[in-house]
Amino acid sequence: MKECSKAVMRRLHDPNFANRYFVGSGVDIGGAPDPLGLYVELFPRMRGVATFDKEQGDAEVLESLEDCSQDFVHSSHCLEHMNDPAAAIQNWFRVVKQEGHLIVTVPDEDLYEQGRFPSTWNGDHKHTFTIFKARSWSDKSVNLLELIMGLGAAAELVRLSVLDEGFRHTLPRFDQTMTPIGECGIEFVIRKRSAAEMEAGGRVPPAGVVSKMEAYLLTGFTFD
């Protein structure tokens, strides 16, 4: 039920999406028929976003997209349709520029599939997803922490959250994404570290000294 559109209002209330994640030009993998590009005007630092769907090629490979060519890569509920999610996420991350972002939403296996696989509500789902479990009921479960760690030293995980704000745990089993508020997913955002950051072992602040006036404006306190 137009999960990308459903996420827009939530994302508008988080300044990170407008100021850090959706910045520059990007690509929306599997975006049709609910593309992120419908909402460019709501994210003022987004110059544009192209939809990459079946007509553009294999979303698992992204053969037509060069390495480090996109300021950001977005995908809403596409990874679960890939034959090899690990290979797909590697290629999605491959095309992100240094200091750019990969923004991905997938269904949470407990909120969406709810204990049964193959999926009751989408027969094309090839995998289920969880942030972390010692044991899953699904024999096709993908542990997202392991998947993200597989991206290597360049991957800085900056967001990982269950989208359960609109999920009602008291209801019997049914597809709650069909409601206006149920996202039933997991969202993660990965920033690609620069070469300098990887060499330093993490982010380091810019060179220089914060002036007394800047410190006062930032904190409201004076420093001797």
Structure in words:
The chain has 224 residues and is α/β, with parallel strands linked by helices. 23% of the residues lie in helices and 25% in strands. The protein has one domain (3-219): Rossmann fold, CATH 3.40.50. It is built from seven helices and eight strands, in the order ααβββαβαββαββαα. The chain has a six-stranded mixed β-sheet. β3, α3 and β4 (96-107) form a beta-alpha-beta unit. The protein starts with a helix and ends in a 5-residue tail after the last helix. The model has no long low-confidence stretch (mean pLDDT 96).
Order of helices and strands: HHEEEHEHEEHEEHH
Percentage of residues in helical conformation: 10-25%
Category by helix and strand content: alpha/beta
User: Under CATH, the topology is which?
Assistant: Rossmann fold
* 3D shape: globular
Compute the number of structural domains.
1
C-alpha Rg (nearest Å): 19 Å
**What value does the average pLDDT take?**
96
Low-confidence stretches: none
Strand order of the largest sheet: 2-1-3-4-8-7
* % residues in beta strands: 15-25%
Number of separate helices: 7
Main sheet overview: 6 strands, mixed
Terminal Cα separation, in Å? 58 Å
Tally of DSSP β-strands:
8
CATH superfamily: Vaccinia Virus protein VP39
The assigned CATH architecture is: 3-Layer(aba) Sandwich
The CATH C-level class name? Alpha Beta
